[in-house]
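pinging the channel bc i need a second pair of eyes. not urgent but kinda urgent?? the chain im working w is below, pasted from the shared doc
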Amino acid sequence: MAFSDRELLARLIKCEAGGEGDDGMKAVATVVMNRVNIPYGEYARTGQKSIRKVIEQICQFSCYKSRISGQTNLQNIWNMNPEQIHYDYADWAIGGGKLWAVADCLWFLNPYSPNCPPVFPYNGTGRFHTRINNHCFYVPTELYRQT
């Protein structure tokens, strides 16, 4: 399906953080836009300031996968039906809105435990910054600049 950038972002927000409250949804939207706007590293090279390229990058968002570990992933952006709030947060982020609690974070994960790993991704390019509801958020380390 050929979704607009706004539609892709709204669907991703609902899929990745629909149950995480206002700050959780804003945090996910902020991470996506941080990746779009970072001037160095992997996301600057591969994303090229494109929301679509950032979201569609391979192995980045579980909600962009139709299969996970060989199993059908029914919770994906194609099955999402965003509500007005998801579009509102997409518009907010595209317009420059930023949840300052996540600062310049480029990654998030739900560890399904009370503890956040100190680094993520596990290659050491991200350092734990904060937790918002079920998600842990990570800022880039100096090692990220070399990606």
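so The chain has five helices and five strands. and The two ends are 31 Å apart (CA to CA). — does that match what u expected or am i reading it wrong
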